[in-house]
Inverse folding.
């Protein structure tokens, strides 16, 4: 379980995120949705201890993220930011293998290699594993980053807009991969999504964020309604019954 | 194509294919041969005594100091630059811009400015050497500590301020140099080119241990440096205390740079050139493989330049000039041919 209590982050004078009180249950996929600048990424990066908090506490599986040594936390929670740019020239496999660092401290054992192979296979990167990252398309690279985070083998996985740069097919595949990871590997996945329909279809819980506070939290059925979405996104939204569940129409 | 991928072993080793491993081994061997060749050349070329005789060794021993100095400088510059580029996440940077050399130039210039030609002697000697190192490391730590631990814990800002302070010191030095008499300036100028002959054998008992300890510590943290190279967020996510690691590496880098600069003077381009070449040669991200190649390349470049200067141009001294000229050409050639850093 991820618990946020009175979490606040100040950006200069006017912009403040929080205070946020939130409980994200263990298991399944939880999607953070909301308009631009609502603070979704800020919340996610704070949970992933990449950003310090100005007030409040965050606990992941009982560990206080600001006080637990980073080294120990890396075995419990992994985090992937929106933009990743590496100066170093790495192959897919070398990148994914970095995910084992918290466990191996850089000395890979046969078991680690096995794990790396599994993560690569899991995201269908087997044929690409010896390619360099700069030889891949944006979508393939995005999958490689996710493979690295999964390879870290943590109970909690935080992903900031993993569907960025992905086309329809790859977005759907990525969401299926993440669902499978949650189900088969028993991970708790927290993910920032832009497309409300992806959240509605693939997430188990949706957390709607607006102006730095959590306005709604619940199963997709509760969030995917005209009034909730219209309120959250400040734009008229109509939810219709699609062939595979509710669809938000906003244009 | 498909077959070859299937046949390839599934391993995350740094050099995944036998071909890459062979290539690495060949490059290291070539560098070792060149290093040994130039060392022998420096010791034996133009040595009037027959090889192996008593007199030969006596002359060789006198020249050996220079070779040892080169080795120290090579290790310092190579390891420091590669590490510095890693923690700053920037492959086109060199630690000398952090004001080490400007500080050295300022110290030397003000010595001559205030004390006249005798000033050059005033900044020579073991205590002065240690003091200069302490000054440079202290200056660097002040800058790092202030800029990295505060609210603005930002590497880019630190680099910028380092460059500005360096620039400021350099212009103060230039101003003082303008006011020197020609003869004083002449004496000073000789000290301001990076030159292996600037080093005094009496410095070595301090320089060698400092260089070895700092370089060893950095080489031992290769695996962590590999993670640091992924940037702040990724390395934090992987459980590394990024700020502490950065400070530790920057401290060791400042020790290495201070030793090298206090020993032979400014070598601005050398570290950058060597680090870039080492990445081209080693063709890997892994510091365990890049460090040895970088140090060897640095020694080959230094000793080669020195050998050429001394025995072909009979211009004892200004090694940094030839390094910057030939090194620059090699650098351009390699980059243009490969098309990436």
């Amino acid at each position: 379980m991820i618990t946020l209590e009175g979490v606040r982050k100040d950006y200069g004078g006017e912009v403040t995120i929080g205070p946020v009180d939130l409980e994200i249950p263990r298991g399944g996929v939880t999607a953070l949705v909301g308009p631009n600048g609502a603070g979704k990424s800020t919340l996610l990066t704070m949970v992933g201890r990449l950003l310090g908090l100005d007030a409040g506490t965050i606990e992941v599986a009982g560990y206080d993220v600001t006080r637990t040594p980073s080294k120990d936390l890396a075995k419990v929670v992994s985090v992937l930011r929106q933009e990743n740019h590496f100066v170093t020239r790495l192959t897919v496999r070398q990148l994914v293998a970095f995910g084992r660092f918290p466990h191996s401290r850089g000395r890979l054992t046969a078991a680690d290699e096995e794990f790396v192979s599994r993560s690569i296979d899991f995201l269908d990167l087997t044929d690409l594993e010896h390619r360099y990252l700069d030889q891949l398309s944006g979508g393939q690279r995005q999958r490689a980053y996710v493979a690295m985070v999964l390879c870290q083998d943590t109970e909690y996985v935080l992903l900031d807009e993993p569907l960025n740069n992905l086309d329809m097919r790859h977005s759907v595949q990525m969401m299926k991969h993440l669902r499978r990871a949650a189900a088969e590997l028993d991970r708790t996945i927290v993910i920032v999504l832009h497309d409300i329909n992806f959240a509605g279809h693939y997430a188990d819980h949706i957390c709607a964020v607006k102006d730095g506070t959590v306005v709604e939290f619940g199963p997709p059925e509760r969030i995917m309604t005209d009034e909730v979405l219209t309120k959250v996104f400040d734009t008229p939204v109509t939810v219709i019954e699609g062939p595979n569940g509710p669809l938000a129409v906003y244009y | 194509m498909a077959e070859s991928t299937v046949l390839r072993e599934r391993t995350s080793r740094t050099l995944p294919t036998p071909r890459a491993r062979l290539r690495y081994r060949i490059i290291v061997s070539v560098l070792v041969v060149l290093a040994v060749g130039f060392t022998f050349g420096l010791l034996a070329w133009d040595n009037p005594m027959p090889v192996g005789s008593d007199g030969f060794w006596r002359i060789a021993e006198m020249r050996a100091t220079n070779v040892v100095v080169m080795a120290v400088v090579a290790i310092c510059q190579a390891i420091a630059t590669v590490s510095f580029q890693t923690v700053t996440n920037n492959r086109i940077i060199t630690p000398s811009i952090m004001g080490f050399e400007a500080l050295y130039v300022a110290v030397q210039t003000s010595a001559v400015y205030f004390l006249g030609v005798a000033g050059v002697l005033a900044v020579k000697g073991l205590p002065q050497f240690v003091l200069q190192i302490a000054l440079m490391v202290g200056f660097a730590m002040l800058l790092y500590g202030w800029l990295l631990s505060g609210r603005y814990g930002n590497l880019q800002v630190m680099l910028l301020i380092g460059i500005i302070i360096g620039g400021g010191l350099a212009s103060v030095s230039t101003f003082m140099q303008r006011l020197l008499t020609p003869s004083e300036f002449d004496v000073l100028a000789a000290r301001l080119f990076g030159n292996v002959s600037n080093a005094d054998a009496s410095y070595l008992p301090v320089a060698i241990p400092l260089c070895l300890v700092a370089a060893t510590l950095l080489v031992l943290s290769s695996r962590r440096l590999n993670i640091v190279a992924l940037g702040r967020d990724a390395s934090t996510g992987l459980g590394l205390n990024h700020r502490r690691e950065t400070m530790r590496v920057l401290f060791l880098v400042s020790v290495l740079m201070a030793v090298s600069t206090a020993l032979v003077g400014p070598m601005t381009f050398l570290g950058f050139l060597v680090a870039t070449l080492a990445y081209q040669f080693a063709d890997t991200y892994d510091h365990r493989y890049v460090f040895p190649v970088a140090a060897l390349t640095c020694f080959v470049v230094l000793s080669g330049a020195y050998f050429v200067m001394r025995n072909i141009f009979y211009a004892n001294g200004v090694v940094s000039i030839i390094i910057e000229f030939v090194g620059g050409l090699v650098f351009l050639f390699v980059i243009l041919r490969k098309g990436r850093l």
In short: Chain B touches chain A through 29 residues (CB under 8 Å).
